[in-house]
Every structure is written in structure tokens, then in C-alpha cells.
Specification:
By secondary structure, the chain is an alpha/beta fold. It has helices at about 15-25, 30-40, 45-55, 75-85, 100-105, 130-140, 160, 175-190, 220-225; strands spanning about 40-45, 55-60, 60-65, 90-95, 115-120, 145-150, 195-205, 215, 225-240, 245-260, 270-275. The relative contact order is 0.18.
Amino acid sequence: MSKVKKPNKFAEDNISNSIVSKYGDVVRSGTEVLQNINSLNVIGVSPALDIALGGGLREGSVVVMTGDPKSGKTTTALHFAAKCQKHNKRVIYVNTEGRLSKQNFDGIKGLNSDNILIIESTDERVLSAEDFLNIIEYYVNNDSGCLIIADSLSNMVPAVELEGEVRTGVRNALPRLLSMFFKRISGTLMKNKTILICITHNIANTGGSPYAPQKMADCGNMLQYQAGTNMVITHRGKWQVPKDTGQHVGQIANWSIKTSNAGGRPNSTAEGWIRFFK
């Protein structure tokens, strides 16, 4: 029996049909791609942040959260994790810093700790940056629709820095590792509708220009290029009840939304109100 010939995908476009025949369905119309983008869900974070973000955080994207220590990055990420659990998304938390606390779990309303997978070093094995990134890549490739929180990328230590004694003179390999990592996952992330939140630290900007910002995110440039949404906590304030004179009940994280692929206006601002754990 002769094989049934598949119809050509593109009418009167033999060049594109030849590409599809050789490489698979890698050529698509703009309308088809737009339909795929429109099928991605946008999940809300909080009312104020959602306005600045254009609705929330979109599936199939890298989200970068940067800020000073204890400014609210982890709390905001876990608050979003609780929202994702309501959408039946699996949550994977990559604990590179080893500083998760009781407040991180019990202080987030609606967060189900039974439905979070924690990736962290053990007594038997200290995970290197390569280990963490390979684990994240495996989840991206094989667990469609999940939320992955890497807290933080800044604290990942390449294997060459884990070997031997503490010393200077070792070139930081993390930016190069991250560059390879993001190149490898960029296509799969959207296809599998995965959200990857990358928490990073501020470092001093030593570029020397008087017009440059005093602080900048670490982890190299590739992360900034891959970020579909880039959120920075510029400063924080006190949450007092009554305002200005009352008890200090929490803190206010002042966010600057540099970019948002959910449609938010670049450089929008929003306040995140974080109540202290009782």
C-alpha cells in the first residue's frame, strides 16, 4: 500500500513547505503564533501589582525580582505561589540560600506547604550552581505548566568555587553558566507554559559613570535579556496603623516594573504591602 502524502501546510509556498518537510512544524504564520500567545494565562499577584504588570505574571516566561536584602522578594514570590496553587499548578522552590523559615510558610495566606517541592542541598550532597540549573532545566522540560522559584540565582556557587579552600583569584563562572542555561530553556519555557521566577541581589555599580545607577542586579546580562518581566524593589517603607504614628505592623515594598510581557506600561510603579507574621 502506498503512503498517503501529507498535504502541504502553506499553499503556493514551496520554500516554507520544504523547510517543514525537513525540520518539522517550525514555520508558522503570525496569526498562529499570536493565538498561542493569547492562550497563555496571566495570573494575578496583588491588586496594585496587577495594575502595573498589566494583569499579573504570564505563563511561559522568565520573571526577575531584584531588591535589597529583606525587602520582600521571597514573600512576594511565595504569595504568587499560593495564587498558582489555586490554578492547580505545581510549585517548585529552589532553595539555594538555605534560609527558609516558618514565617515563609505560615505567613502566606492560602499557601499549601504540602504542595510545594523544595530543592536544596543535604548533608550528603552540597548542590553546585550546575546541579541547581540542571535540576531546574529538567523540570522545565518535563513538568508542563509548573511554577519554579529560584531563590536566589545570586547565591548559586559554581563547582569550581566549591572545590578546595576559600580563596581569591577564582573567576566567577556563574554568568557564563546562566548564559548557557537560559539559551537552552528559552524555547521550551513558553511551549510548556512554565513560569520561572529568578530572585537576584543588588550589587554596587562600579562602572564609574556619574549618570549610572548606584545599584544593579547581579548574575550577568543574559538574565536581563531573557526576562519577560523585570521587577525591582527600589526602596521600602514602614506600614503603621494608624499611619505615621501607630504600631509598626509591616513594610511597604516599592516596586518598579521595568518590563512586563503581560502588557504593563514600562517603568510603572506599585506598592506591595507585607504584614508581619503574628
